[in-house]
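Support case: protoporphyrin IX containing FE complex. Customer-provided input:
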Amino acid sequence: MESCYHLLAIIVRSPGAQQVPAPGIPGRSKDAWGGQEGLLLESFLQEMKRYLGFTEVDARHLRELGPRMEKYFPELAERFYAQIRQHPHAFRVIAGGEAEIARLKQTLQQWARGLFSGVYDERYAGDRSQIGYRHVRVGLEQKYVISAMGIVRSYFSNCLLLEFPASDERLRYAHSLGKMLDLDLNLMCESYMHATVQNLRALNEQLERANRELAEASRIKDEFLAHTSHELRTPLNSILGFSKLILDGLCKSREEEQELLRDVFSSAQHLLGIVNDILDITRIEANQMILHLEDVNPRQVLDSTLPLVAVQAASKGLELHDLSARRPLPSVRADEVRLRQVLLNLLSNAVKFTSRGSVTVRAGVTGTDGVAPSRRAFLRFEVEDTGIGIPLEKREEVFHNFVQVDNSQTRRYGGSGLGLAISRRLVEMMGGAIGLDSGSQGRGTLVWFTIPVVPEAQQESSAAARRPRATATDRR
Ligand code: HEM
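Agent response - structure generated as follows:
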């Protein structure tokens, strides 16, 4: 065991050491023990031979013994498994019942034949450690291999008693055979050590990964909190400041008071928007956002959303185009409220970040979700502006929580910085995708998203289903 620890130290310290093959990987020693590990195994074999005092004389003794022992192998196999199978653990490990035991008896004889081969080189060591791996793989604990070797050992002692009545001759062979069995046991158990090291390494990597993820999650949460408190404090301060001015009677006229009240109102609205965004993203991240998917008429969603940004666009002198206005659009499978939320978010972003030019909406059917071709049809919405645009390297980032192209923009343009993150999650929950491109004129931004179209048959049936229900409502 001490030597196993020594080997463990070599493996752990060796910087260039390759991973040993996964326990139980079938294949012979040469492939499995190539490179650095092959060298480790070779030095382990030499070390064990020295430790056990295994010499060429022992190898010669075993070569001599081989022909005389051959006849005992079938009985060895019988006795071995007769004893092993008493143990409930054996049933767990030997899954294939009688047929497998019959096969195992053959492999045990094969193994025993190897003991007397007389050649104990690196290849031999590799084969033995592979046998160990097979046991690791089937879940045989190391202690059972060690004990089972005792069965072999005592059986062979009896064989030697029968073969060599003269005690000095018997002792000579028994001594060499004993060393050989120890060598084999060490080589088999060595696989357990390798497997343990491998498992520990994998566990370590897993832990390190989990640690990194935790640290990142904690950093994101800290950032989230810092942003949240800042974003909430800004409009709150305005509300408190302006209302205090009014309460203290510091307004010189009713008009001034009205103006401050309007500021209080818009700050409160802004605050509500941020709180809603924070609640949404928190719910989404806690997997508590439940969508109600139904057949939705996208025309109605567009028509009810565009007026919400029309006033703001007009006040900035921006043109607002709906290029899908005259096209028939198929029903989509979506949560109507959330679809409107996504569209409104993209439209208000476009208006917010555009100071001159236009904002254009398009919608059309496509055979891809925007990322990969699909057998389903999707409705692709596009919102294009002629605004400041988003650099290529920032296009993925803006879909993360609290990210605007640069943080100074949060100050300048307001908003929680959560809109695109929420939109992405909502679109994905509805089965679509979302992305960013440059505007078609090479300036501005084009944000697109896709929503699955209701399959044609479904559309017909849902249209049919809608009709009688409308009649029933009319009658009431
Ligand atoms: C000195 C002890 C043992 C020796 C020398 C030995 C030998 C072997 C050999 C040579 C193989 C074939 C490996 C291969 O094809 O690569 C094998 C496989 C196997 N042995 Fe053992 N064995 C021992 C102990 C045990 C014990 C105690 C059990 C069960 C309780 C066991 C269960 C198995 C099983 C289930 C397999 C098949 C593994 C597979 O399908 O991958 N062995 N054993």
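The chain has a mean pLDDT of 84.

Case will auto-close in a few days if no follow-up is received.
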